[in-house]
């Protein structure tokens, strides 16, 4: 299926989820993360969800990482350059929603992409080969290509995979895992 068709399909499916379903599915996803072999890593990049788009609530993941004394990294997006700047999330980090309602750090201690060990990746859909469909701006593909090759890329999805995304580009970065509320997919 084409990315454009998948974007429409999964935006509609997400809009049909209730707040309770989002919370329950987000918690189940966080619980599945505990089963992954990544707890020897230090720097974990987490996206802060756009509530209006009914994204996976990563608050549970943030608590999990904080409880395991991991270094948590969050990003700020530049829509002109399509670059992301990454900051260490601390007790002093001030978060503000940008013009697209994306919660972002105002500033802080910058972390280079090459230092990040694990990235939790937002997505609308994914396929059985580990390809993902995002919002189509390319922020995450650009960011992930700047990470070291061994960085673990983990998609988070409320839904199960499609058979195949047919219009994958060479610049699209494949996931290592995708976690749904029920299953951990490894690629």
From TrEMBL:
Protein's UniProt keywords contain Metal-binding: yes
Domain of life: Bacteria
The keyword ATP-binding belongs to this UniProt entry's keyword annotation: yes
Enzyme Commission number: 6.3.3.2
Cofactor list: Mg(2+)
Binding site for substrate: 50, 55
Residues engaged in binding ATP: 3-7, 132-140
Alphabetically ordered keywords of this record: ATP-binding, Magnesium, Metal-binding, Nucleotide-binding
SUPFAM superfamilies noted in UniProt: NagB/RpiA/CoA transferase-like
Catalytic class of the enzyme: ligase
Molecular-function annotations in GO: 5-formyltetrahydrofolate cyclo-ligase activity; ATP binding; metal ion binding
GO annotation (BP), single: folic acid-containing compound biosynthetic process
Reaction(s) catalysed by this chain's protein: (6S)-5-formyl-5,6,7,8-tetrahydrofolate + ATP = (6R)-5,10-methenyltetrahydrofolate + ADP + phosphate
Family: Belongs to the 5-formyltetrahydrofolate cyclo-ligase family.
PANTHER family hit by this protein: ATPASE INHIBITOR/5-FORMYLTETRAHYDROFOLATE CYCLO-LIGASE, CHROMOSOME UNDETERMINED SCAFFOLD_24, WHOLE GENOME SHOTGUN SEQUENCE
Record's protein name: 5-formyltetrahydrofolate cyclo-ligase
Protein's organism: Flavobacterium gilvum
Organism lineage: Bacteria, Pseudomonadati, Bacteroidota, Flavobacteriia, Flavobacteriales
